[in-house]
Design brief:
This protein is of the alpha+beta class and about 130 residues long. About 45% of the residues lie in helices and about 20% in strands. It is built from 5 helices and 4 strands. Strands 2-3-1-4 form a 4-stranded antiparallel β-sheet. The radius of gyration is 14 Å and the shape is globular. The N and C termini lie close together (about 5 Å).
């Protein structure tokens, strides 16, 4: 199950970073956004030798790639689970949170609350669709 985010208004880059950073401490989800898709390419995320690496474990290169993208904000153990490996394209959306298990209504409401807090100082508006 995924919660798709469509962002409205600049600065979109700051909004994507805020949404990414929110996920670091939200272990129920992994993420994908337009910048991640461009940086890693879907083939390298889901394919052999990419983020998932052999046997589903992150390779050292993959961990370093994720850490360099997220900066010092991400613990090394979260590197293997933060970027979505589903290979699904964003389509009309700018970002998605992919849930590891079907979320409860409370978990979705918590996510909305955290997104509201993260985006309020930036001034970006958004819509969210969970399906």
């Amino acid at each position: 199950m995924k919660s798709y985010i469509k962002l409205f208004g600049p600065p979109i880059g700051e909004a994507l970073k805020a949404l990414r950073n929110l996920a670091i401490d939200f272990p129920e989800v992994c993420v994908m956004d337009t910048a991640l898709e461009a940086q890693f390419g879907l083939g390298s995320i889901a394919g052999p030798g990419g983020i998932s690496g052999a046997g589903g474990q992150a390779s050292m290169d993959s961990v370093q790639m994720v850490m360099s993208f997220f900066g010092d904000d991400i613990p090394e153990e979260r590197c293997d689970t933060i970027v979505s490996k589903s290979g699904e394209r964003l389509g009309e959306y700018d970002f998605y949170y992919e849930w590891f298990q079907k979320p409860t209504v409370q978990q979705v409401e918590d996510l909305i609350s955290k997104i509201d807090e993260a985006l309020a100082p930036i001034g970006v508006r958004y819509t969210m669709t969970t399906k």
